[in-house]
Fold this sequence. Notes:
single chain; mainly beta; Tachylectin-2, Chain A; globular; 3 helices; four-stranded antiparallel sheet
Amino acid sequence: MSADALLSGGRPGAFLLATLLGACGGPGTTTKRADAGKPVDTGATHSGGETGADTGPGSDSATDTAPPDTDTGTSPDPCGDPSVIPSFAHGSGPAITPVSTDEDHGSDNIYAPDIVRVSDSLCLLYHGAQDARGHDQIFVATSTDCHNWVPWPDRADPEPVLANGSSNHINDPSVVVVGGTWFMYYTDAATGIDDRIHLATSTNGFNWTAQGEVLGVGAAGSWDFLKVGRPSVVRRDGAFWLYYDGQDGTARHVGLATSSDGRSFTRHAANPLLLNAGAMDVERIGDTWVLVHESWSGSYAATSADGLSWCDQGLVLGTSGGAWDSYGHVTPAVYTRDGSRFDALYFGGASDSCWCRNRVGVALPTGDPTPPDPDAGCGGCVGGSDCTEACRDGGHGVDGFCAVPGSSDPGACCACVAAP
Length: 420
């Protein structure tokens, strides 16, 4: 999620640490439109990649009343501008893979990416991973270019930034920053796949404190009475707009809840907004709202001028033909650098029909060059390491890149990027 485009409460300030150091740690498609105002039936999605037993409905934590009127955008077309969705070219393989030797990644399953661009030189990719005991937890990876990622705090030994605690699993992070507070919304299943939406907060994006449930299931017999999860949160008109999927045991649809404080949410009266879809991400590109969602075939999309009435745009990225995503895309996500264009599509590539063996992949718009390796040219300085590890090991930052290609001077090789 682009911090620049969607955070009305302000974005993190300057984070580039001017320290230079080396490995020694020294200083230094075809559009298919639906009728406006009606929920769209996409008929395209899978029921999810979770395991466990449902425990039945729980209590409702929000009422079914409409939020105040909001800005409906400037586009005269209810679909917005579908051309903001580019054609995509698959990369050569997954962008992030599980660390099979690490206990926290031991079940070989990572997915549900969400990207926050903190500054020109620091991006964070939140995602879920399943540990050796079968519990999902939430992790983060860092990048200087929003393309090449390094797990936190160590490439070979990633650790969760939000652990599951007593819950069976937590996953599907969606992060926004308002003022000095980071808000992470995520799926929490106390037992089995008894999904509810919870909140955690942070002051720096790395140290998180769970705040508890913010959206429970709907009233008995409603479209979302069984479970709710997979949140996607955007800031709009000073409010939190939380898109989520809900299930009644027979189908899964997308709904919306809004909040002025990020903690107390009200369901929208028009729910559900999108039928037979789930595990979505929503972003604004120009004046058009774009929603991507998962399926066996790949990543599907819908567009909207107001974020409420959605127009199905069909499959926007199929599977690559490789084994790593041969069973579809789970939990896709939009990355936009500044809200002006669709800069990348991230997704969980399913390598097994169980949807329980996933890797995080990325596809760039056709014609966009692949960013170069940020460590290129610093091999003589960092040896078998890299600039990110050198910066972390020296306590100078959470990420790094090669500042002086060809240098062998350990005091001038890597530029380090500090955490917020």
